[in-house]
Amino acid sequence: MNILSYGLLALVSRTEASGYDLMLKIQPFWQAKHSQIYPLLGSMEEQGLLSAEWIQQADKPDKKLYSITPEGTRKLHEWLSEPTAAPVMRDEFNLKCFCIHLAEPSEVRRMFAERREYHLERMKYYKDIQDAIPTEHRHPGHIGFEDYILLQKAYLRTKASVDWIDWVEQEYGQWTAQP
């Protein structure tokens, strides 16, 4: 079992889903491709962690809906008790920041302005979704609580990036006076 397998089990533990639905739902947490997901689903079905049912569709190809089994739930509980690995960060922007000494000041300002705009849009996106979560879902024990707290984490992380960009621009501006 790899982390993606556990992520797929977690998603299916909430509601049955097709492989395509799972591919879309996993993206905010873990970057995964179609070619990774479908073999894992088949393997987890063979191991008895998932069960599947074929659903006939009139105007589309038939689809397979996956559900978690008691063994899958047991495996997910087992995984939850294991220590969590340190987060992995891979960000092209950070690599570009590492070499801004080679760029023209106007390019550095553009780069940071674009990234600020990106983060401001993401903050609005997260906040809009979070605001749509009913108040009664915002309490521990409700299945919607996980959505609520993860959206808050995403919002605060994104806000911290905007704050950092503001700080960098202030520091950068002290050393590169605009004509």
Automatic annotation (TrEMBL):
<dbReference type="InterPro" id="IPR036388">
    <property type="entry name" value="WH-like_DNA-bd_sf"/>
</dbReference>
<feature type="domain" description="Transcription regulator PadR C-terminal">
    <location>
        <begin position="89"/>
        <end position="171"/>
    </location>
</feature>
<dbReference type="Pfam" id="PF03551">
    <property type="entry name" value="PadR"/>
</dbReference>
<dbReference type="Pfam" id="PF10400">
    <property type="entry name" value="Vir_act_alpha_C"/>
</dbReference>
<protein>
    <submittedName>
        <fullName>PadR family transcriptional regulator</fullName>
    </submittedName>
</protein>
<dbReference type="InterPro" id="IPR018309">
    <property type="entry name" value="Tscrpt_reg_PadR_C"/>
</dbReference>
<dbReference type="InterPro" id="IPR005149">
    <property type="entry name" value="Tscrpt_reg_PadR_N"/>
</dbReference>
<feature type="domain" description="Transcription regulator PadR N-terminal">
    <location>
        <begin position="8"/>
        <end position="78"/>
    </location>
</feature>
<dbReference type="InterPro" id="IPR036390">
    <property type="entry name" value="WH_DNA-bd_sf"/>
</dbReference>
